[in-house]
Write a structure and sequence with these properties.
The structure is a homodimer. With about 375 residues, chain A is an alpha/beta fold. Chain A contains 16 helices and 15 strands.
């Protein structure tokens, strides 16, 4: 299947992204423990921010008034925002994020009040105020935020619902996508490009219907969304049913997936870009990505690193590995020093960017298998 | 009194410090939200770490095994460690730190178990284990940590005790200082230099006795410690009774004081170096140092900064002011983003270093009054 894997260059008003590429999550217009100069120095090509968080705090109007998100947060490279839907529905459905990763949970939390044809009504996580997010509103907000790449509003269907719900939800998401596209076109000044989203859960016929839908519409790119199943095998199956059928003239993004093995799987299916909070979130909890480890990472708090004078990875060129020992990082986490979060975040960002660089080199020289073995010697 | 103010160059094995200088607190071998490259880029000449914290976690033996504190934490410039006494006694006495700043509190907490002629017995703040810190032990630990400048163990007398206690305590501190000096000389390899501490609280005759003591002993430098009184006026009085009488052939440090007005006062009394957690601690709570403000700072969380597109200070050359608006920093603190702590910390470090640079320039050109007016237009 490696023949579907591809090299590319995705051009934006803030520069080109060499693909396959990883997109890092600057959820609220910031990458938590590191500043944008550090993010860039670690080799990052593109970041994403979340419409849901920013529309509530500090609000899209304020960001626009401050000159847009690029200027506000000090990032002058390519940027994507999501539609806001994912957070509304994941908070509302309990935890869609967990379910997408295969952990089944039920129930609806209080923040999502109602989903209607018009949009999603929810309460702010900060002050409890009421908000209605419609496809049009999502486009307007993303326009104000000003990223290069924007995404249509969809209902992020949870895993535990049945096929009938998934189908109805998908069809509404398609109608929302058309409304998003119309609103996007209305305000289009050529500075932003719009991604459509493929829904359909784990059902092959629904995925096909959704693929046909996005291919038939004038989207710049396609993002694979919705539930990807209960485990990595099912995810790989859903991706293999979806990615190869998408219009290959357009960039393809896989939403919310960023494990090393998942990335090799996705690249082989023709995915161009990936995003996931995992590399930076785990860093803040002491999880450092390392090549060839069973869980793709090590936990720096573990006692075995207390007196370890070596860097996280001997062959790593990142800021952290060039300066600090595992013993020091272990000390920082044991002592609850904020610097520990910064240093492992920098390592994990560099690690992911280096992974993608070597994947691109592997594609260029037709040695992707060799690259995969190097980065995943312990893969299942 | 400005004639006592002086320029100097304090040479250490890790480079010379141009004085007057500010010493930043890397309490546990880290400056919380920023790494040592950032600390250096912000103009820092010298940092200090705390023996008390490091002897408990990760332990002096571990730091020594890892090649010493400089290597462990990635700082290759001049470094000082304190004796460990301040934290033991401040935690034990309730809050000496608060008292030194003029806030009277009483009582003894549980961590300090007993002060005897031998030393101070206390319990670890991490696991409750028992420790005895003696003058000899403090010297041995500081030797293992490996900084350039080390400090004798003293009892840090609280403010609320009477003259009799202060005198007895001071006299024991003098005996501890002699033991510290003997132990220091025993292990002296020329790589470290020892500071004696002046005690005596707010009592002129005791301060004189302590000044005479340190002047008579072979210390490299002198540090003014102990209670400095209930308010800034009393502190200025205690300093004026102490600093001018110290041997001016030796560098003079003022322990734990770092307000802008306090620094001008101290410089005019001949103080060469200052240290205080205030600039970096307040940064982590949204307090940004600014020239000419009533409290020497602004609170970025205040609503007035929500839509403020200007940097913290228009004339500041720091990393943060070159890139970010007050509106963005306000957003980061409202959104509880860790990056906010990093960015204001960087500003406050640069601010203090710039203050000291301009003070030195003011001394060089005999324009200290002009410098003071610029940095303190709202002084009382």
């Amino acid at each position: 299947m490696a023949h579907r894997a591809r090299l590319g260059s995705l051009k934006t008003p803030h520069g080109a992204i060499q693909t396959p590429a990883f997109i890092f999550c600057a959820t609220k217009g910031a990458m938590k423990a590191v500043n944008m100069d550090q993010v860039k120095d670690a080799g990052t090509q593109i970041i994403l921010s979340n419409t849901y968080h920013l529309m509530i705090q500090p609000t899209a109007d304020l960001v626009e008034k401050m000159g847009g998100l690029h200027k506000f947060c000090g990032w002058d490279g390519p940027m994507l925002t999501d539609s806001g839907g994912f957070q509304i529905f994941s908070l509302g459905h309990g935890s869609v994020a967990e379910e997408i990763k295969g952990k089944r949970q039920g129930g609806r939390a209080n923040s999502l009040l109602k989903i209607t044809e018009e949009g999603a009504k929810f309460r702010s996580y900060t002050d409890g105020s009421y908000h209605l997010l419609t496809p049009e509103k999502s486009m307007q907000i993303q326009k104000k935020l000003g990223p290069d790449l924007v995404v249509v509003l969809d209902e992020c269907t949870p895993f535990h619902v049945d096929k009938k719900y998934t189908q109805k939800s998908m069809q509404m998401s398609h109608r929302w996508a058309l409304r998003s596209l119309a609103e996007f076109d209305r305000g289009n000044d050529g500075k932003q490009a719009l991604y459509g989203i493929i829904q359909g859960g784990v059902y092959p016929d629904l995925r096909q219907e959704s693929v046909d839908f996005v291919n038939s519409q004038d989207f710049f790119g396609h993002a694979i969304g919705g539930s990807l199943g209960a485990d990595k095998d099912q995810m790989a199956e859903v991706i293999s049913l979806t990615a190869p059928r998408l219009d290959r003239a357009r960039p393809i993004h896989l939403l919310g997936i960023g494990g090393i093995s998942d990335i090799f799987m996705g690249v082989r299916q023709g995915i161009d870009t990936f995003d996931c909070v995992h590399p930076t979130r785990m860093a803040r909890h002491g999880g450092a990505l390392v090549k060839g480890a069973p869980k793709e990472s090590l936990q720096i708090r573990n006692a075995q690193y207390r007196e370890d004078p070596t860097p996280l990875e001997a062959d790593c060129g990142c800021f952290t590995c060039q300066r600090y020992s595992k013993a020091y990082l272990h000390h920082l986490f044991k002592a609850k020093e904020l610097l520990g979060m910064q240093l492992i975040t920098l390592h994990n960002i560099y690690f992911m960017n280096q992974l993608m660089t070597e994947i691109r080199e592997g594609l260029r020289t037709n040695t992707l298998d060799v690259v995969e073995t190097k980065w995943q010697s312990c893969k299942r």
